[in-house]
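User: Sequence in, structure out. Go.
Assistant: Echoing your sequence, followed by the structure tokens.
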Amino acid sequence: MPGLTNAYGLTHLPNVVLAPALVYEAARAAHVDVIDGYSTDGRIRAYGLQVLRDDRHALPPYFAAPLLRPAVLRAHPELGPVLDQLSGQLSDSAMTTLNYQVDYLHKEPRAVALAWLRRKGLWKAPRTLPPTAPVVRLGSKIFAEQYILIEMYAALIRGNTDLAVATKTGLGGTTICFEALRGGQIDLYPEYTGTGLQVLLQPSRAVLDSLGGRPGAVFSYVQAEFARRYGLAWRAPLGFNNAYCLLMRRQQARQLGIASISSLSRYLRK
């Protein structure tokens, strides 16, 4: 809220603190009108919500990208172009729909991932490998979006390389996945530029101000600092931004002419 207040002057927004599990339900039931959430959450589609555009870039970008050990790329250089097949391919709305299918239609992440790859023309049948084939170990955090992404990467590797794949999904939060990567227990997991910046690097206020929430600047900084501090590599982002956001019921937002946080601020000042 302090950042949004500074950028947008949201001083006329009375607020109530709710448990995270209740926030989306409260918006759907019209107990509250504006909530904070995550921009690719499946509940956006399930509950008929609308993300208010952060037109002044007050919230940091959280673009998803594979984070990996450079040693695995040196040993298997063919892996890089395979991972890059997802670069720029997933929009916010596409990822929201995939999350919705897993979280609310209760489809298996693997089935959802493979169906999407087939629609995009990226799926290939897995190659037949000998038992001695080198293994790439993929990890994930403990929520549906990560499970879907890992299944996509696993399918791409199996269909385009002679590498075997071992998946270790649901490892837990950021710290567990990050330390497993640094310790060599896994070779890759999907991470978010905002998490890399705010949680793992924790730069000074001056550095944050210099980046200004610009996605390209944040990615370049995170990529360079991870290589320098931790010896880890980021590949190109997948395209979607799972960022913090403000949400309203879509019908109400349209009736009031509110599409961005700036327009919300103007409405409140009336």
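User: And one key feature?
Assistant: The chain has a mean pLDDT of 94.
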